[in-house]
Amino acid sequence: MHAPMMILCFANTVSTCAGPTLATSGLALQVPIAIVSDAIVKHPIWIQSAITITCTLVGGAIIVIAFFGLNLKERQEEEEETVQDKTEESESLFPSLPRD
pTM above 0.70? Predict the structure, then answer.
């Protein structure tokens, strides 16, 4: 029952507010959230050695950094499109005069 709702929410996110790349990377945020909750709730196996702790935390950090990096890129592209649209709109309102 929960899977169809999750698919519907994901499809809505992709179509309305974010591109498919950002929505998919948002789903990947489940991994760092699971790492933190696993460490808080119980004593996971990956805490037994320094190497596994380092690899797990670095992997989770990479996912979080990538998500925010993609989010910044999406915002910059939206701002560029907005500026370009405003420029085109002002040019259509005030066309340049032909030069002799």
Answer: no
